[in-house]
Write a structure and sequence with these properties.
Elements lengths: L3 H12 L3 E3 L2 H9 L7 E3 L3 H14 L3 H5 L6 E3 L4 H4 L2 H14 L5 E4 L2 H10 L17 E4 L4 H10 L2 E4 L2 H10 L3 E3 L8 H4 L3 E3 L4 H13 L15 H11 L1
Parallel strand pairs: 1-2, 3-4, 3-6, 4-5, 6-7, 7-8
Helix pairs in contact: 3-8, 6-11
């Protein structure tokens, strides 16, 4: 409950008459907070509805040609204040990235605010926004990407490193190994049924987890109940009955 968005979720839950959940773990959390079971409807994940609907369009993206990259590569996102605003955490993460990038190029679509923080801390990274041999290995900074371009890269990544909740879900459905640079997740099903692992900001922990992934075959996507692209239809059906 230290994240602003989590506080907003709790307040929204308290004000809502109908609560739509992605799985049994969310049902249990709501019941533990005193929500009447009759208000809870398990419908699946609307974010995965979007992924499944637009995946074919994402496949046709030419983002790899535009960036001059090809598999294998890792994909990185980093934006949470607990990482970006903490100088020690940011340095630990980038120390791990420097090691990983010796074996696997890392593509980092970077938000301007994150870039400003990195520069203010004097964190050393590979040349930004460039192509060619100098950017063929190491950490490659690129401009923020649109949804379809990012999804295209994510599907083809050998490894995803992120502190984003939604990307944990997408990576699990796509069958891409995901290392979450946090000590907790609001998406626990991605740990038990998905491809996600929590590694925090500890340098050694991040590197060890990445090396284990790179030594093993890529995992096959696992089915997560109700994450089938029909969550919005189930929500509409609940509205129709209410």
């Amino acid at each position: 409950r230290t994240m602003p968005e989590e506080i907003n979720r709790i307040v929204t839950d308290a004000l809502s008459d109908l609560l739509f959940t992605t799985g049994a773990d969310a049902d249990r959390n709501l019941i533990a907070e005193g929500v009447a079971p009759r208000r809870i409807h398990r419908v699946g994940n609307v974010m995965i509805d979007t992924l499944r609907r637009f995946l074919a369009r994402a496949d046709s993206s030419d983002v790899m040609r535009r960036l001059g990259v090809a598999p294998p590569f890792a994909l990185l996102t980093l934006h949470r204040p607990s990482n970006v605003d903490d100088a020690d955490a940011l340095r630990r993460i980038f120390a791990a990235l420097e090691v990983i990038a010796r074996d696997l190029p890392i593509i980092f679509p970077i938000h301007p605010r994150t870039l400003k923080m990195i520069e203010s801390l004097g964190v050393r990274v590979a040349p930004a926004r460039g192509g060619g041999p100098a950017a063929a290995r190491g950490l490659r900074l690129v401009e923020p990407l649109g949804y379809l371009d990012f999804l295209h890269l994510q599907k083809r990544a050998r490894l995803v490193l992120t502190d984003s909740g939604g990307i944990q879900e997408e990576a699990s459905i796509l069958g891409v190994p995901c290392l979450t640079l946090r000590d907790n997740t609001e998406r626990p099903i991605t740990l038990t049924r998905g491809t996600n692992r929590l590694v925090g900001s500890d340098t050694g922990r991040i590197v060890a987890a990445a090396r284990r992934i790179l030594r093993a075959p890529a995992p096959r996507p696992k089915a997560i109940p109700l994450w089938d692209g029909r969550a919005a239809r189930r929500i509409a059906a609940v509205f129709a009955r209410s």
